[in-house]
Amino acid sequence: YIVPSFNPPHKGRSGLSAFSYRYEMTKLAIENIKSKTKIILSDIETEEDGFSYTLNTVRKINREILKNSNLYLICGSDVLYDVKKWHKPDKLLKEIGLYVFTRPGFDDENLQIHAKSVIESYNAEIYFSKLKMPDISSNNIRKNLNSDMLSAKSDLQDNIYDFSFSGLKTAVLSHINSVRQRCDQLCIEDVCASFQ
Predict the structure, then answer these.
(1) Rounded to the nearest 5 degrees, what angle is found at the Cα of 71, between the Cα atoms of 94 and 55?
(2) Are 85 and 52 in contact, with CB atoms under 8 Å apart?
(3) pLDDT at 76
(4) In what order do the strands lie in the sheet with 96-101?
(5) How far is CA 103 from the centre of its chain?
(6) What value does the mean pLDDT of the chain take?
(7) How far apart are CA 170 and CA 30, in angstroms?
């Protein structure tokens, strides 16, 4: 399941694009791989009032859809450093495991120490991907697009962001390129929302 967050507690409403834009961007991102996989895009969080906490979403998916399956949250290694800030991390990590993709620039030894701390603190189940990831992040894209359009455009034309991470970033790149080819105004917030 891919579940775009409806009302994330860690994001300010002012910089957050409408859920409908983020949902549609995600739909476009998985369009080419959906038929080849068991990926399901869900708007399950729109059924709840208030903040969209991962714990509530996981419980609802497990209770109503997957009937107590083993669930894993796929995330980047930077997420491990924020576990203590999550809503009820002790309860969440009893219900899901983490599948972590290591990102360039993170000290592997320090990451393993931190992962061990999370495992010990929360009795968490953590797996690491051995897949080498390009040195790219949504924060860098936002920063480039906000600070210097010309350098970001040059970067994009050089295809440094042209790769597939389940199709999401490739779809975003394709969207950016098509907007620029049409000489339309690029709404940075809408583009970046797909990385939330």
Answers:
(1) 55
(2) no
(3) 83
(4) 71-76, 96-101, 126-129
(5) 13
(6) 77
(7) 10
